[in-house]
Amino acid sequence: MQTVKMVISGAVNAGKTEFIKTISEIEVVSTERPATDDTRLIKKETTVAMDFGRIAIGDDLVLHLFGTPGQKRFDFMWEILSEGMLGLVILVDSTRPETFRETNRIIDFFMSYRETPYVVAANKQDRPNAWSPEELRLALRLPSHIKVLPCMATDRESVKNVLLELLDVIMQRSED
Amino acid sequence: MPLVGNIRDFGLSDFLYLVDRGYKTGCLHLSRADEMASLYFDKGKLITATRKDDNVPVTELLVRKGKLTPVQAAQATQVHQSQNGVTLSQVLLNLELIGRDELQRVLQQHIEEAVYALFSWNEGEFRFEQGQRPDPTAPIMPTPLAVEHLIMEGVRRIDEWGRIRDRIPSTDMVVKFIEQPVERTKGINLAADEWRVFARINGKDTLAEIARKTGMSEFEVCRIVYGFLTAGLVDVIRKPAPVPMLATGRPLAEAPRVKKSLVTRIINRIRGM
Ligand SMILES: Nc1nc2c(ncn2[C@@H]2O[C@H](COP(=O)(O)OP(=O)(O)OP(=O)(O)O)[C@@H](O)[C@H]2O)c(=O)[nH]1
Ligand SMILES: [Mg+2]
Fold it and tell me: From CA B70, how far away is CA B59, in angstroms rounded?
């Protein structure tokens, strides 16, 4: 049995747990705890450690989805999670510009190890005050070759689309 | 829908960059305590700026600065009221009550001062209303201002590390030009020290090395590079690490080179979900 891994990252409250829940075939293994730090000002429950979801591709192949914990003091988990990953989804809460700098730090963190295929998902596009993907690209100063996709982590088709766009980037780097 | 936030988290210069590159038309409203300012943009360029406590027609501003007599101001206002779809600034030019260069100079100075004062705000709510236009009597400049120019000047006023560190976390980072910096520099006037740094950017030297070579302080170099960065002229990148290591001391495995057939299988599976 071969397993491949994708990582879903982003600032606290970006929608990582929601994203994985929407697409995973198994009940998401999540470690939600009452939030501490500044996080509790935004939400009651936050992911500590990680989220884990799974999609069986066939009898011999399975895709694992890992969500990174949002709170800063769990940063050490990230590099463990990022080992050997196929690709990365960076989720952004498009309604909260106060998280954009943190998002850049997260991207920098992953890219400082190596060039991992990634896409940015402009999440919560259903919310009225969401910044559009193009506005997010400028706000985060993402180079033009990086895809910034509209996303609603609560919507299955939308999550599928983000993963398919990421797979398209991975495909371009794959070998025959 | 308006873009909203706080300039504590998303700075004024970041916003100006977004307006410029996004080619945006509309109004950026800024407020804190009892202060309020509004910057109006047309296709990414600044056309006017007003403050709540100084929101006067262009004629009154010019009378105050001794560039227009009250009689001329009244004449222009009257003509303006009988015309549709023109700005009061344009009427002044049509009536030849003031020359174009003179009007530009006076208004630009007034507007720049208003904008530069905003760079000292460490916090304040912002709201960008797309498509919103200024009142036609507002002090609208004949020639809109490129925002890179404002960004550079705004950054010259930054005197603390905090904001700079957000974008330049270490002086070990390398500075390089983005695609067409020459094109972008047109709207900008660089000061002598800025040119010294600008001329040293080669995509190889770190900020610390540039400081050493120019004999300037690291803070000074970072502040200047921060300005270039914010104006979208350069990028700062990490020096490529020789062998990536995990904090655990183990070298990180290379990104797995996957087979196309495997990726195709995953794609088909997700499509079918
Ligand atoms: N309207 C809307 N709400 C969303 C969307 N995605 C996530 N949410 C909500 O946003 C909140 C945060 O989502 P989570 O999935 O817990 O975010 P997270 O990134 O896992 O957060 P941490 O684990 O604390 O870092 C929840 O209330 C979600 O229901 C979306 O697309 N639209
Ligand atoms: Mg979570």
Answer: 8
Q: Which residues contact B108 (CB under 8 A, 6 or more apart)?
A: B141, B145
**Residue spans per domain, chain A:** 2-173
> Would you call B267 an interface residue with chain A, using a CB distance cutoff of 8 Å?
yes
The complex scores an ipTM of: 0.91
Q: Starting at the edge strand that comes first in sequence, how are the strands of the sheet with B35-42 ordered? A: B3-6, B125-130, B26-32, B35-42, B45-51
**pLDDT tens digit sequence for A45-99:** 766 667 889 999 999 999 999 988 766 656 667 777 777 889 999 999 999 999 9
CB B226 within 8 A of CB B160: no
B3–A170 CB contact, under 8 Å? no
CATH class of the domain defined by B166-273: mainly alpha
pTM, two decimals, is 0.82
Q: Where are the domains of chain B?
A: 3-153, 166-273
Distance from CA of A57 to the nearest CA of B (A): 6
Amino acid at A16: K
Integer-rounded Cα radius of gyration of chain A: 15
As a whole number of Å, the CA-based R_g of chain B is 24
B166: closest chain A residue by CA: A101
Q: What is the 3-state secondary structure (H, E, C) of B62-105?
A: HHHCCCCCHHHHHHHHHHHHCCCCCCHHHHHHHCCCCCHHHHHH
Q: What is the pLDDT of residues A98-147, one digit of tens each?
A: 999 889 988 988 887 778 899 999 999 999 999 999 999 999 989 889 99
Instruction: List the structure tokens of B238.
Output: 């990490």
**Domain A2-173 part of CATH 3.30.70.1530:** no
